[in-house]
What we know:
This protein has 116 residues and is α+β, with helices and mostly antiparallel strands.
Amino acid sequence: xxxxxxxxxxxxxxxxxxxxxxxxxxxxxxxxxxxxxxxxxxxxxxxxxxxxxxxxxxxxxxxxxxxxxxxxxxxxxxxxxxxxxxxxxxxxxxxxxxxxxxxxxxxxxxxxxxxx
Length: 116
């Protein structure tokens, strides 16, 4: 069992160090873990459908975790699901980020990609 710190990227770690309080919101992208080895090889369509199912289950687990965190901390979290990327983008506190990092359904937590 790990503490999840290996799932937090260096860029996000630097951002967390720069925050002034533990309650400060940091924009993050939480990427769902996908075991590509377990996806079927029978056809492209079957593989894509299985991958989509894994992504949706992972997103559901992340959202359920966030809802429980919100209830426990009396706060709300604005988030956006990026199903095509297999990620959930949100403003999160250090404690929420750390609790997400220990989830098996989470592959990595990073700063969101900025698009021009």
